[in-house]
Amino acid sequence: MSIKRVTPTELVWVNQQYERIGFQPSTLDHEVIAIVMSQDHFAGVGRLVKLNEHEAELGGIYILDKFRGQSLAHEVVSFLVEESKRLGLKTVYCIPFEELQHFYKKFGFHEFDISAPAVDSKILTKYHWCLETYDKNVLLLKLSHD
């Protein structure tokens, strides 16, 4: 297993995966995108989307079916959480499906009052889009780096 940041050439593969599962496409403009490799094959992907200078959204975590059960999602999220610290971000939001709440709590994500005035409007828009788009319930979680 290895994990690395995506290059422009690999972005095509990333967006093909996201298109297959109904996720929004990625760009390298304001995103850190990670690919996890297993046995020299692309096995999964995740991203950290900068909302502003101090905040980002962690999302797009997807492991291909044949590579599941190898803790690769854990590796992707760990990598991106460390990247968020390295970038000096103060807050990282995540909008997971409800059944993944316990997984994200392992990394320090927690539920919070979404009516708080400090919540970035882009993340609220995305959260409402997810609620309307997906058949499963989603949560809005937050990780703070102090």
UniProtKB/TrEMBL annotation:
Tell me which SUPFAM superfamilies the record gives. Answer: Acyl-CoA N-acyltransferases (Nat)
Q: In the record, what terms sit under GO molecular function?
A: acyltransferase activity, transferring groups other than amino-acyl groups
Gene3D superfamilies per the record?
3.40.630.30
Annotated InterPro entries: Acyl_CoA_acyltransferase, GNAT_dom
Matches recorded under Pfam families: Acetyltransf_1 (PF00583)
Q: Where is the N-acetyltransferase domain?
A: 1-146
Chain segments annotated as transmembrane: none
Entry keywords, A to Z: Transferase
What is the recorded name of this protein?
GNAT family N-acetyltransferase
Lineage of origin:
Bacteria, Bacillati, Bacillota, Bacilli, Bacillales
